[in-house]
Amino acid sequence: MQDNQTKSNKDTNKITPRTLSGFKDRLPKEAMAKSKLLSIVSKVFENFGFMPIETPHLEYADILIKQGSDEIQKELYKFKDHGNRDVALRFDQTVPLARFISQHRNKIDLPFKRYAIGNVFRGERAQKGRYREFTQCDFDFIGSSSIACDAEIIQVIYESMIALGIEEFTIWLNNRKILNGICKYFGILKDNDISNILRIIDKIEKIGENEVIEELSKMIDKNSVKKMLEIASIKQNGDSTEFFNEISYLKDWNNDLKTGIEEIESVYEILSNLQMDRDTYRVNFSIARGLGYYTGVVYETTLNTQRGLGSVCSGGRYDNLARSFSSENISGVGASIGIDRLLSSMETNSKRQTSARVLIICMNKNHFSYAYKIAETFRRSEIPTEVYPEINKIKKQFSYANSKGHEFVVVIGDDELQTNEITLKNMTSGMQMKGLSTLKAIQLLKE
Amino acid sequence: MQDNQTKSNKDTNKITPRTLSGFKDRLPKEAMAKSKLLSIVSKVFENFGFMPIETPHLEYADILIKQGSDEIQKELYKFKDHGNRDVALRFDQTVPLARFISQHRNKIDLPFKRYAIGNVFRGERAQKGRYREFTQCDFDFIGSSSIACDAEIIQVIYESMIALGIEEFTIWLNNRKILNGICKYFGILKDNDISNILRIIDKIEKIGENEVIEELSKMIDKNSVKKMLEIASIKQNGDSTEFFNEISYLKDWNNDLKTGIEEIESVYEILSNLQMDRDTYRVNFSIARGLGYYTGVVYETTLNTQRGLGSVCSGGRYDNLARSFSSENISGVGASIGIDRLLSSMETNSKRQTSARVLIICMNKNHFSYAYKIAETFRRSEIPTEVYPEINKIKKQFSYANSKGHEFVVVIGDDELQTNEITLKNMTSGMQMKGLSTLKAIQLLKE
Q: What is the value of ipTM here, to two decimals?
């Protein structure tokens, strides 16, 4: 009988090759695109002085559980290791960051700017477009409560989007203090109630205004609900100076609103001096961010042409990052780029399945040595080059170039070997040039 | 009472921040060095037309177990997931590659050149310098049995080492067929016995010649042992033409030896035409490689000044890669760079803990907006720049620059703001220049 867990083809005693539900392979074209995106954002982070750190995929379970919400505990990949320790795969990179900061506190100067690109694991119910292993690109500014950091995070998001070639995007800003202030004004004072209200408001785009009103009515009187939602749906549409004038009356409502709005004004003061397109960042009072730990400015980023995709870069300011591990109060602000989501939003028009621009094909085994020499010369001129490693019908070799998408094919035959020249074929135009020297070919390829 | 698994400081109810034994964090300087190495080798791989692929860290356990040796089964991180499936963390990237090729066979053209950079997990006994999670950089040439592929793998190893700035290294080549031929000559004919012999010979550098002789004597008569070891310790010391002449008599011993030596000669024929330093690759009959699946040419790479470090890049040719999953016979050849080992071998003289060359410091909150503008201009000129986000004593800000290792500090005060200029201090020479325009500063920084 066959074990339920082992899928084999009965006839051949082979195992059926398959991945776990919610986990995926990336074929070369997609993996290449992803690795390009990651190298672009890393470069942006480093340009701002954010440095990479690395933490293990596997941690003591208690490290991860303490800070996680109930939801996350259910989703945790938790098990006993060989030493009977309770261990778990990380579900985000923020809890490991808190552990890291506390553990290496004596080697770290604050403020500490770090980025981390890595995979995290969540045993969520499998859903279209949701994966159980996915990549996060976190960047955080730790150990400073200066509003300049909050402004810088927005700048990093902006520069990342631009560097990734995304032009039509909006960074939505809000401040938890503004939301607290609104709640307080309507008599919601307890932290727990405020959290519940924010969670409901946060769902407005998902479940619609009517349902939000209904849910809120259970907690606040009906007249206030409407007024409250009106305030919570305030959004900056045009010029920021005008916008801040229009909402300045809210500063008189209470201190939370006053501080919250003034903090965003300070962020704007720094940003407005920069060469950033001012239409790309806007205040939006309805942004609450699901996670409980934000305490100040919060961000979401949407693609203007694909709002339905959700936020591709979110974050905010949090106090007391490392509270589970240390009594030192460390504040921080950061965000995370959802690289898998971004990748899925990008059209991949290119038919190229290879990094090599040129394929060299030989007619005869004796040509390999010459072919490898030419390939070496091309590569040293920064022209990625591949040699077809077998002697095959020329048609088959050309069809390999066609399916992989090489731009050029170099053909080596007896003539070429004798004259120390090559034949170069442009795979797009179909044009073929005979009798080229290697140097001349490189010039053509560099054009 | 306190749970045995949960380490907390009793007084404060805090969790002690700690990593699992055999797992490690990387602080910025080390993480940065590693990420540089990885980006260098990726570029080399892509220059040869190797493309990245990605497979999950977590797989169905049966996929990983079938192909693994007993040793590896003991070391596997295996557990039940939320759906009660038997799952495991990958212990290498070759088994997932075999699964990948079989699963996506209809989307993959052979020959298929892929690289994969990722972490693997082995629950080995904790040892100094051995980790339970470590990074592998695999590159493989799948689906061609041409000897040109074997030559190319050596070329990729060579170009990787050069690109990594390593000059003193040796790539040791051997062929499993040569070892089989030697065994057969001395009457060892069964595969199992051959494997045992090779495993013993492979340990010669570790346990010494005497112990090897003793162990071999249990299987072969004493006179033959000595002769056999003499052959197995043949090593190319000088010119390759001379070397192949000297050992040509072995080709007459049997067909395995003949084919094995001729394959290496073919590899040399391709390589000798290239601009590769000929002293960097040498034949060494004692290289056997532990893993059972190699069938042809095998490689190891050692650093000439740090032989004790062991091999930093090993691999070889294997037949029938995907035999667990498919009846198609797919041959391949590849190698894996041990990036953690290489990293540990490199001196890190640099005191720089940051990617930013410049730190901008402000005397007053009103300077932030100007400081951020200058930082933006620097960054757009490809000068990575950081702004100190708080107003602090100037001494404290300079000490931050000193400990992080910024090359330059820009000081912004009221004077600078008024005149639209900056003051630039070279942190190495201590020289300070006042009244610079941003443009002039960029020129100086670019020099």
A: 0.90
